[in-house]
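Sample entry (322 residues):
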Amino acid sequence: MLMMSWAACVAAALAGVLLDRWLGEPRRWHPLVGFGRLAAALEARLNRPACSSLRQRTAGLLAWATMVLVPAALAWGLVALAQQAHPALAWALHAVALYAALGACSLTQHIAPIAAALARHDLVDARRLTARIVSRDTTDADAEALARAACESALENGNDAIFGALFWFFIGGAPAAIVFRLANTLDAMWGYRTPRLLHFGWAAARIDDGLNLIPARLTALTYALLGATGQALRCWRTQAPAWSSPNAGPVMAAGAGAVGVALGGGARYHGEWEERPPLGVGERPGAAHVDACLRLVQRTLWLWLGLAMLSVPLAMTMGMAP
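Predicted structure, serialized as tokens:
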């Protein structure tokens, strides 16, 4: 990890989380917003749906490598130079990079207002707020559908915007966290099975699946441990295999089971009704369940950090944290 000890890595992770909590999402010059614009421009230039599927997939893979590996390599080089100048400078860069990759504060800032709008029975505002975070249609959605969308988004993005980045940061510091976050962003942009993106976005979708394989299951397990454990594990075992995403299924099924809310089911995407498998069991979703899902994500974050800090003395005895 570029000569960073385990103790320094855990301290940098805690610093990155605290920076996210303190500063929140950048209102101007957000790095992921700029990245998204570049990705959209590159896709528009390189994606040629009239070409063969092989050429589209090759173009998509090259585009992915350009958008992900180049920034990660630059981050690696910058941290290496900082390490030579002073280890404290490299440590600070690791922490700032994790802050840029995390979205814990942003997740709460986007989803908590939906719960508040639902609690005051303001469907107009709840629909507007929900439409900002999901791709499904919310124009005529009722309160239950909006709460369902918010719960699912909180649980799934807990992994995508927080725990996946944190897992890879523990593995490889700033460069690894950057790879994960950028890859996840490209999957969110290019990973749709539409006629235009089916082949071009194939690499982005498959790579994101691979990077999320372990973090998603650790997230699902933690959700289960912090809620109705037996119920969550049953939902994971019986419901996740039917879900189209190999990683979102375990995360959302376990999370819904842990909270005790019934999610999944039908939703309208791009004007077409899509019947989805059920997730979780229990009550129909409402404002209180959205808040409960957000609390579950927050408890999971602090448990991960707490376990990491508790592991430092063990690492010291093994010579990993001088």
